[in-house]
Amino acid sequence: MVESHQLIYELAKPFLNTRKNDIHIEISLSYAFTLLKREAGDHDIVIPAVLLHDLGWWQVPEELHLKAFGPQYDRELRRVHEVEGVKMARKILEKVNYEVSKMEEILLIIDGHDSRLEAISQNDCIVKDADKLFRFSPRGFEIDCGRFGIERNKYRKWLNESVEEWFFTSTGKLLAREALKVLEHLSLQTWKPL
């Protein structure tokens, strides 16, 4: 990460200590770098957007988290984390004197990263795909199965059925399908949480 992105990450870290967002951001960031290598996108928009997109969960009471995301969720409650996340992200980006035009796109991406079904830009496509790919990683898959109380094969089937609907880039779809093969192989073994 470049220095400005590292600074953004350091300022965001205290607010990622909920809902396993610290793990989520680390994995989504890794996917974002892979997507940026294969798809056209602006690192200076995508990376900060990934780092900051879920800050708003800090403002949602923990006892309501599981009602706001996952296979079944409350749309209005989910929207709260986006609106609050924009406010928090703006403060961080202003604190590091981030370029205004890039900051505005980052905030627009955050404002609808879960609720908006279409993408507003190629950068948004990459952020949305990196965000969703977390669920397909072995660690994200295990976290979600545990927190939602869903049997692994059922959750893997739901993820498989969601690929075409969720992903915007050909790389995102490819990475999701590759990850599903890994998850299928792992579930055939005795699998312990990472």
Name of the CATH superfamily: Hypothetical protein af1432
Strand content: under 5%
* Number of continuous helical runs: 10
Measured as a percent range, the helix fraction is: 55-70%
Number of domains: 1
Quote the distance from N terminus to C terminus.
Answer: 25 Å
Just give the CATH class.
Answer: Mainly Alpha
CATH architecture: Orthogonal Bundle
Mean pLDDT: 90
Major β-sheet profile:
none
List the helices and strands in order: HHHHHHHHHH
How many extended strands?
0
CATH fold descriptor: Hypothetical protein af1432
- State the secondary-structure class: mainly alpha
Name the shape in a single word. Answer: globular
